[in-house]
Amino acid sequence: MTTTLGKPAASAPAPAKRRRRARRDGLGLRLYTWLIIAWLMLPIAIMILFGFNDTHSKQNFQWEGFTLRWYQHLFDKGDLTRALWNSVSIALLSTVITTVLGTFVGIALGRFRFRGKGVTNLVLFAAISCPEIVMGSSLLSMFVSLDLPRGYWTVLIAHVMFSISFVAVTVRARVVGLDPKVEEAAKDLGAGPVETFRLVTLPMIMPGVLSGALLAFALSIDDFVITNFTSGSTVTFPLWVYASTRTGTPPQVNVMGTLIFAVGVLLAVVSARRGRRT
Amino acid sequence: MTETQHAPLRDDPGRAEDAVPAIELAGVRKEYHAYGETVAAVQGVDLAIAQGEFFSLLGPSGCGKTTTMRMVAGFEEPTAGEVYLLGESVTGVPANRRDVNMVFQSYALFPHMSVFENVAFGLRRKRTPKAEITERVTEMLRIVDLTGRERRRPSELSGGQQQRVALARALVNRPRALLLDEPLGALDLKLRQAMQVELKRIQREVGITFVYVTHDQGEALTMSDRIAVMNDGLVEQLGTPREIYERPASKFVAGFIGTSNLLAGDAVESGGGTSVLKHGDGGRIEVGREFATGDKVELTVRPEKMQITADEPGDGLCRVHGKVSEVVYLGTSTNYNVTTDGGADVVVFVQNAMNAEDVARRGDTVWLSWEPQHSYVIGSAE
Ligand SMILES: Nc1ncnc2c1ncn2[C@@H]1O[C@H](COP(=O)(O)OP(=O)(O)OP(=O)(O)O)[C@@H](O)[C@H]1O
Ligand SMILES: [Mg+2]
Q1: CATH level 2 (architecture), domain A78-249
Q2: Do B327 and B223 fall within a single domain?
Q3: Measured at the alpha carbon of residue B166, what is the angle toward residues A177 and B173, in degrees to the nearest 5?
Q4: Contact flag B111-A186 (C-beta cutoff 8 Å)
Q5: Cα–Cα dist B112/A278, whole Å
Q6: Which of A60, A161, A166, B70 is at a distance of 20 to 30 A from B120, taking alpha carbons?
Q7: What is the pTM of this model?
Q8: Top mutation candidate among B66, B180, B217, B235 for ligand 1, by most atoms within 8 Å of CB
Q9: In angstroms, rounded to a whole number, what is the distance separating the alpha carbons of residues A66 and B297?
């Protein structure tokens, strides 16, 4: 309001009104945004809250008071802990493998012309759009006909398979936007092919690689459908939780969910920070 | 690599190897195959560029300048012919092992590195000691006037500053030759002119061979020691700016460089190494070459070499008669557009230093005259 100070009174109202209207519009927008956020956050908030529920029954639906008990006894249920460990290790391993392979596929698709490029693009797209249930059952029949015993490793293979397209697509988008002259400049200044890749290409496509990796991790850690088809007797966290709903889900599940969520948020914040810097 | 320790910035012009051209192209051809067609981007170029020379490749868009440059830098291999750097063939030598550096039209700076790291890139690849890197990069940034900006990212610099980083990044390696592909193309006119002066100063300071690609004839004329005018993948003319400007070897060169008046005449007499051409009523043009009577000869005359008078000029001068179609006052000079009786449209530049008023008005019939040595034959059609 400082602008109206030294001005004739007559000219003041118009801009002031406009400003007020702008603020009212802004209010509507803000309300809407908060509503959406609340909508998205509510289930998560409830999940977090019931991790602190001092429940004594087998079910965890009724609020009975605050406790940190479940955090202290987080790893008390051996099979749940094993399932979580399976999920985390599969997610980490598949993310590493997927990111490496997917990055090279993305670079090839974004940079080179080669025979079969169109087919590769089609396959990537098909893998992304294919219903999980179809992919899961077809993977199962493939493993059966190959006579591969289902378990930890088949789950890992399946996870790499379905997340590789996501990495390839995000990396490809980044590579397409990359000026090939920059790599030529590196060569011109004496960098060999490997050095050029390590010092110039990779850092420049890193945002794409990182978001691809995040996506791969997120897809893997909570995958249920495909994992269910390919896991044999191996149990992952989502499978364990699903099975437990029949008998009652222990609050440790809420705690583990909370921790996975916290790690996810942390990674997202870090990647957003990086993104802003470059 | 032929690279040993360079003496500091070539301060030893008397070396024996100075007789060897820095860059030599012998019968270089480059064909591209695209969509089942073969395009000859460069169709046989022979050039020898001396050490320490400021050499320009000038020509219209698509004439093969960039392609020529990329073959020297090592990004493309010639389809035929050889490239020599300091007398040694570099066929099959990859770009990272050639002792030349390139400044790209788009700068191609490394966006994820600071200005300092950009400039230090080449030295780091050669495993130069850290202290020397700091020293040389700092010195180079001083030369291009970017001291104090070492820690910035390229995106935090203006276009002109980025351009200078690109220049520093190449120059700091003290290459045998620096290849500049339209380095000022993206700058506005003011900055462009300032950078032209700057580039010339830097070239003098470091004494490295510059090969400069441009399609701006003014830029080429003011900066170069020698110019190769290219057209359609061929070198049309090679010479000093003065030679190229004053004695264009072809119609293309005459048209491309500056403004040029194209006249045609029929040979009426010849002998003693000269011919006289007839051009319209009373038009008499002398040229320094013999032609058979009746030959149709084309020649060019630069606009500033022509005089415009109301009376018939004296003997010994070439002359044509015509009518003024337009007078354009430009401050320091006035342009007269004249349609000759022979049917040619010509322009005459007259300096406004002495004349209080225009020498002619629109619609006046006038005589144009010039010294015979300013007529340049560029072709004849039997
Ligand atoms: N990679 C390529 N594939 C096919 N044709 C090409 C390729 N590069 C260049 N050409 C063709 O070769 C010719 C010369 O191209 P070049 O880039 O050397 O021109 P230029 O003189 O640098 O032009 P400009 O002033 O526009 O930069 C053009 O006709 C162009 O279309
Ligand atoms: Mg070009």
Answers
A1: Orthogonal Bundle (1.10)
A2: no
A3: 125
A4: no
A5: 7
A6: B70
A7: 0.74
A8: B66
A9: 105
